[in-house]
Amino acid sequence: MSTEQPTVAEAAPPPTAAAVAPTPSDSAAVHIRAPRQYKPAQAAESSSSPPLEWLHRSWTVTHSTLKRDLVAYQSKGSTKVKTVSGADTAVAAGGGDLTAWNWRGSGLLKPISCPWEMIGWGERVDAEGRTEKWAVTWFAKTLFTEEGLDVYTDRREGMSEELEGLILAALATVGVEPLQQLVAKNMQKVAIDLAAKPEEAKA
Question: Which of these, 108, 153, 166, 171, could form a disulfide with 159 (CB 3.0-4.6 Å)?
Fold first, then answer.
């Protein structure tokens, strides 16, 4: 999640001010809200968003409801890493709310766009004292993809098991029946190949 989509599709309650990142003392729970499409009032009440510098990093997709919704991915049995590039634009003018975005592809994919939202984000400190950043995004249905959800971590090797369990449990009780069914039926763990180098690959 940067101004370009993440390389490799990833707890604390959201802070009360957009300019303040989560702190280790806030890591008691994972909070995930419903997308604006389903519960606009809840989205407005939970409008706090991470600072832009918090988003500017490489993220690893650990779970997804789409089998091929990866910006950088490697097919099983193949050594080639393929990439899809595009740009994200914040929906809110002035960049005050960084939870609602619109993605547009580049090159041959430029006609394709997709609105998406960050419906959960935060940081969690594990038993070893390491901080793990996480995020959950929802994306709308497009001409080529169904509506879906992605889970991210800033750890290249993947998400810790404890945080994974908390996030999946929160998604299962988000309060939107279509999304809860989507999680139950389609949410899959993404295979992570640490030997892959997507930054050296081309589409």
Answer: 153
